[in-house]
Amino acid sequence: MRLSLFLTALVTAFALATGAFATGTTVSRIKDIASLQSGRDNQLIGYGLVVGLQGTGDSLRSSPFTEQSMRAMLQNLGISTQGGQSSAKNVAAVMVTTNLPPFASPGSRIDVNVSSLGDASSLRGGTLVMTSLSGADGQIYAVAQGAVIVSGFSAQGQAASLNEGVVTAGRVPGGAIIERELPSKFKDSVNLVLQLRNPDFSTAVRIADVVNAYGRKTYGGGIAEARDSQEVAVAKPASADLTRLMADIENLLVETDTPAKVVINERTGTIVIGADVRVSRVAVSYGTLTVQVTESPQVVQPLPFSNGQTMVQPQTDIAAQKTGGPVAVIEGPDLKTLVAGLNNIGVKPDGIIAILQGIKSAGALQAELVLQ
Question: Which residues cross the membrane (predicted)?
Answer without folding.
Answer: none
